[in-house]
Amino acid sequence: MPKVLISDKMNPRAAEIFRERGCEVDEKTGLEPEELKAIIGDYDGLAVRSSTTVTPDILEAATNLKVIGRAGIGVDNIDVPAASARGVVVMNTPFGNSITTAEHAIALMFALARQLPQADASTQAGKWEKSKFMGVELTHKTLGLIGCGNIGSIVAERALGLKMKVAAFDPFLTEDRAIELGVEKVDLDTLLARADFITLHTPLTDQTRGILSKEALAKAKPGVRIINCARGGLIDEAALKEALESGHVAGAALDVYAEEPAKENALFGTPGLISTPHLGASTTEAQVNVAIQVAEQMADFLVNGGVTNALNMPSLSAEEAPKLRPYMKLAEKLGSLVGQLAHDAVKGISIEVEGAAAELNQKPITGAVLAGFIGAHSDTVNMVNAPYLAKERGLDVREIRHDREGVYHTLIRVSVMTEEGEKSVAGTLFGEAAPRLVELFGIKIEADLDGAMLYVVNEDKPGFIGSIGTALGQANVNIGNFHLGRRDGGGDAVLLLSVDQSVDEPVMWKVCNLDGVKTVKPLRF
Length: 525
Known about the structure:
Strand order of the largest sheet: 8-7-6-9-10-11-12
Mean pLDDT: 91
Oligomer: single chain
Radius of gyration: 25 Å
CATH superfamily of the largest domain: NAD(P)-binding Rossmann-like Domain
Shape: globular
CATH architecture of the largest domain: 3-Layer(aba) Sandwich
Number of domains: 4
CATH class of the largest domain: Alpha Beta
Helix content: 25-40%
Number of strands: 22
Strand content: 15-25%
């Protein structure tokens, strides 16, 4: 009988479900790391929330552990790469908190509009400062959504019910989906200029970190009010403090912070600030939902081998997995590549398979492509929820199977439809196991997609390879491999460089300023 440890406080229904499904359960909360390390070797499954930190040290002692289930979305407290290396599946419950978090954002918007916390504190202090707390109506105001996925779309629906106008910035939001939601799709600068209220509903990635920077806040409409129930780090907290003190930002309501627990923060005490301690998921209903979901998922995996909402393993049957795994690895890398290079204003994506790949179940391959594509800009996507997220954003996904076998014994092609036209990448397997890029935006190029890389488009002129090699060498960036391709002699050339470490912004600018360079983009696989 599989044995599960629930190490964080969780709704009692979770333990009941484990037992009903044939698992033995222990509930031991509040364990110190050494205490957890001492007992974890006895368990097949570990169910956590945010309090338990699963480190490589803990995983090393977890000799029997097969699955970790996170009752919630974020897995910052779990070392997912270390778990993957030890063959431990990591699951989360990505949609159990959606309504609760959306409602908290709406509640904070009301609190900002009417200065409710400040008015409450003043009144209970024996003051009667009625004229001090002049508020604003929400009706007919413009709400700017940064991120219009699952939670953002719920916020939009509520805001429209309040007779607000809603503008949304989300690279994955299609025009058709925007029309369906009743929102206007805009770019970030337009949103900043027009929004009376801004609420963030995007994960924290390299692309979204500091999205409300000092420069962005300066572009915002004077008197704007900002709500963040998504992730700390999306807002430059020092810049927000300055904007609040100057009055350019009339108010801000934060549920998340760059460093948590936020027992100290430079923003605290700033006029116009409302703070809550990461309460986005803190409702009875949400806690029941995520507890039930994580227990059902873990029990299904431990008893039946079913895989749902796994961050490091596809949803596959035991028979399909060995054959599909190398194809899915290739598919995810191709999706990630096109996601990093051509994610803006994508209307649709097509996945074509031919040769040996056409003989397999295409759904996991499609899921892997979508996970790579959306995962380039999201920290919660996996191969199970990627198709749902694509559908939610109105992304037109097409699967095409060719019976033919071309130059390669197997080929996967990923094409995206953008406002600039179709862009595609293609790859094959070498030795039926090693993923290999063979075409990039119409240019033949052979490359491994692994680790840190640099994508460069330049004029095909003599001496360029030496120039970029010198520039990176002077910056102490070691080049692992050069991968070259070009359309015609003297035309555009593409260069993919494998580098030993990520290239920082000053080095990027140095490369950008080389003679003949048209595009430079860092990549990570």
